[in-house]
Amino acid sequence: QVQLVESGGGLVQPGGSLTLSCQASTNRFTFYTMGWYRRAPGKQRELVAAITSSSTTNYADSVKGRFTISRDNAKKVVYLQMNSLKPEDTAVYYCYAKWVTDYWGQGTQVTVSS
Length: 114
Hints:
- By secondary structure, the protein is mostly beta strands.
- It has strands spanning 4-7, 10-12, 18-24, 33-39, 46-51, 57-59, 67-72, 77-82, 91-98, 102-104, 108-112.
């Protein structure tokens, strides 16, 4: 069983920045593809960004050039740096870990509003 604990969400003005963190409990962190999904009110869950065990990254078109995913294997943490935030980025952001089994965090709210 892997526990994922997100932090860093909050309220930010349009154009602002936030960094989300996800702390994983597993000692096999390096094997996992890590990533972030989000679910906005009334919308389906959307993959935001992912990073593989070899640090290959991919992003949703809607966040390319604005968001950056990274991982610190020593700390067992994955980050999502979010810049130039827009109101449409408002959502609950969920961390996930994928290897043999998928695991999900509880989510952290990001609200972009003036």
